[in-house]
Amino acid sequence: MATLLEVRDLTTRFHTLDGVVHAVNGISYTLEEGQTLGIVGESGCGKSASVLSVMRLIPEPPGKIAAGQVIYRGQDLLKLNESQMQHIRGKEIAMVFQDPMTSLNPVLTIGRQISEALIVHMGMTQKQAYQRTLELLNMVGIPQADSRYGDYPHQFSGGMRQRVMIAMALACMPSILIADEPTTALDVTIQAQIIDLVKTLRDRLGMAVIWITHDLGIIAGLAEKVIVMYAGFIVERGDVDDIYDDPRHPYTLALLKSLPRVDRSSKERLATIPGLPPDLLSLPPGCPFAPRCAYVIERCRQENPRLEIVDSHHEIACWVDVGTGRER
Questions:
Q1: Rounded Cα distance, 266 and 84, in Å
Q2: Which one, of 8, 95, 11, 100, lies nearest residue 49 by Cα?
Q3: What's the N-to-C CA distance of the chain in angstroms?
Q4: What is the C-alpha to C-alpha distance for residues 10 and 74, in angstroms, rounded to an integer?
Q5: Euclidean distance between CA atoms 114 and 292, whole angstroms
Q6: Residues 295 and 325: beta-carbon distance below 8 Å
Q7: All residues at 6 or more sequence positions from 298 whose CB lies less than 8 Å from its CB, including other chains
Q8: Per-residue model confidence as pLDDT tens for the chain (328 residues)
Q9: Maximum Cα interatomic distance, the chain, rounded to a whole number of Å
């Protein structure tokens, strides 16, 4: 597969009255054509900020993409002007946001909001855009699409609003779909329906997907590659089977242990990660996970490790081998 997107040393900062927030700290990864990449981590670890940086949607000020490159089909998106970037957003790279109620315009019908992208990016007439919008609504499983074309967002349930957002994102047949925790506000049944929908559409359309979540359970059956983020850094990266079968970073191991399992006794308490994530205004000098880590050694508090290969297609940023507990 050919490389579709390459992120190199992406660094994003937010300048606030309290100081500089180190939201994304030099992350790098690639996305192949038709591949699904999962980005996981706790809230505030930089997942959303990283993909908003890729889309050039970081508000400036207070935000600023301080360094790095985002190479899409041979061009650096960070060097494009706003007019050029508008041709990429929606048409080449589309995004589904976490809360569809705040992402959809409440005073415009859903039909108009979807057809607008078709008119602007695809040059369709109103009639062509109308027909295509009905096709998209049917594609994402909204019944009686012709009668719902003129409905407003508040007339849809949460799950149906998210389907509308997916239809809008797919309107121009993008090469990459970025899904930023699109199922967080939905109940478990609707979550499963949305995930199955995205998988079906991904396979049918051949697009690549970046799926952001704090739930490692979702990624297991969805992605081929996984990135685990903590405090704005990538701490583990690899194939999904390697990450789940043999987690090598203490943070990934702790996340997996905290997942509910059907083979556990109902009386058994879930494992938890002690402490709190670090303050991104003042990161510690060493590994940011050190204060919460069960494998911490003195070097962890002094020096932040870089990503290193521990196995084929498997990298971690850690001074300790969690399999043996010995220093690497």
A1: 55
A2: 11
A3: 33
A4: 17
A5: 45
A6: yes
A7: none
A8: 688 999 999 999 999 999 999 999 999 999 999 899 999 988 888 899 999 999 999 988 899 999 999 999 889 999 999 888 988 888 889 888 877 667 788 899 999 998 988 888 888 899 999 999 998 888 888 888 889 999 999 988 888 888 888 888 888 888 999 988 877 766 777 778 778 888 888 888 888 999 998 888 888 888 999 999 999 999 999 999 888 888 889 999 888 887 766 666 666 677 788 888 888 998 888 999 999 998 888 999 999 999 988 887 889 999 987 876 777 7
A9: 67
| Amino acid letter for position 162 | Q
**Rounded distance, CA 81 to CA 54, Å?**
14
Distance CA 323, CA 328 (A): 11
